[in-house]
Specification:
The protein is α/β, with parallel strands linked by helices and 348 residues long. 51% of the residues lie in helices and 7% in strands. It has helices at residues 3-26, 40-48, 64-69, 72-79, 94-103, 116-119, 126-140, 143-158, 175-180, 212-215, 217-230, 237-240, 243-261, 274-283, 290-297, 308-311, 323-339; strands spanning 58-61, 84-85, 109-113, 199-201, 207-209, 264-269, 301-303.
Length: 348
């Protein structure tokens, strides 16, 4: 067999293998969708839109609850303005808030979703540093990186096999994740503490919960098992109370500086189910942390315990809304903000 024939055979076998591999994963639409990866490149695309905003515009920051619960397309349908979605799965939004306030001329409205465990993370926390790295990427990305991202989009939109995440979900399809699913016979850890992906994203970075979370209770339990693996070990308030005044002071300065520019910030405390909320309360009691924080920064606040429309949904994983519930939740939230005259409905 000559070199040319070997090359053709090798390419053919590779192509056939990739087709078989892709076809196999396409038989599992309950788990995998061909969508853009929600990475720092896609975030940077949204962040770039802040440069061309007006006083009427809205920027959303927050962690995964905000990304799951607020749908920017529904928001636009109700208000007439589509927010810029900078909420990010698994990262505290503090660095994003500081970036907007100090590195842009934005003077509109910031909707800030508060998940206390992430929102009040100190700046030396690894998750805070991870969020900061996304901000740095936006400011430092090269033309080659931008071009590479644009060239990767068509492949991501059409190939399920490219499913992966910077969060490294246990069931991502990259080689590292696949290796992690292999357990030795005496491996006692198993997959109990591995976080499975349970969502997909659109190109505006809205996160939608997969239907399997309400159709398969065992799959949902895989997610709640992960939460339950660390929530009981959260420290009590008395052991961490010294960090909060420092964070309150830091955020107050940022918020005051944004107000001085003419902007407004509205804080949203999304619902969490009792297994999650009770443990979070032990570490960060509402009266001692969230309420004092809102009093310190002096901004409008919407806490799920105060509004029936915010608390009426069952959260399959204790923490995030199912996609259909997020639609009506977004509608109700926007209408409430309009009613309270914090935002205005666009009428043109």
């Amino acid at each position: 067999m000559n070199l040319k024939t070997s090359f053709i055979v090798g390419c053919s076998l590779t192509l056939i293998s990739l087709i078989v591999w892709e076809t196999y994963w396409r038989t599992k639409p309950e788990l995998y969708r061909a969508v853009l990866e929600d990475d720092r490149y896609l975030w940077a695309e949204q962040r770039a839109k802040v440069k061309n905003t007006t006083k009427e515009d809205i920027v959303i920051i927050g962690s995964s609850r905000t990304a799951f619960n607020i749908n920017t397309h529904i928001w636009k349908t109700v208000q007439g303005i589509q927010p810029i979605n900078l909420s990010t799965d698994g990262k505290p939004p503090g660095p994003f808030l500081e970036d907007i306030v100090y590195n842009t001329d934005f003077k509109g409205t910031i909707i800030a979703g508060v998940t206390p465990l992430l929102w009040f993370s100190p700046p030396n926390n690894q998750r805070w540093l991870d969020a900061k790295s996304w901000v740095n990427h936006y400011h430092e990305q090269t033309p080659a990186q931008k071009l590479g991202h644009q060239l990767s989009k068509p492949l991501q939109r059409h190939l399920v096999m490219l499913t992966n995440s910077e969060l490294e979900f246990y069931n991502d399809l990259d080689l590292k994740s696949l290796i992690n699913t292999i357990h030795l016979p005496n491996d006692r850890l198993g997959d109990q503490f591995m976080l499975y992906n349970f969502s997909y994203r659109d190109e505006d970075r809205n996160i939608m919960m997969l239907p399997i979370m309400i159709e398969d209770s065992l799959y949902a339990k895989r997610i709640t098992n992960v939460w339950n693996s660390f929530l009981p070990s959260l420290p009590s308030y008395n052991n961490v109370k010294d960090i909060f005044p420092l964070q309150f002071s830091r955020f107050k300065q940022v918020v005051d500086d944004f107000k001085a520019k003419g902007g407004q910030i509205i804080f949203i405390r999304h619902k969490a189910e009792p297994p999650w909320y009770d443990h979070a309360q032990r570490m960060m009691p509402r009266a001692m942390v969230y309420d004092k924080f809102i009093e310190t920064v002096d901004c409008p606040s919407y806490h799920f315990q105060d509004y029936p429309f915010m608390s009426k949904y069952r959260l399959p994983d204790w923490s995030h809304m199912y996609v259909e519930d997020a639609i009506t939740y977004t509608e109700d939230l926007v209408n409430q903000l309009i009613k309270d005259q914090l935002i205005q409905k666009k009428t043109n």
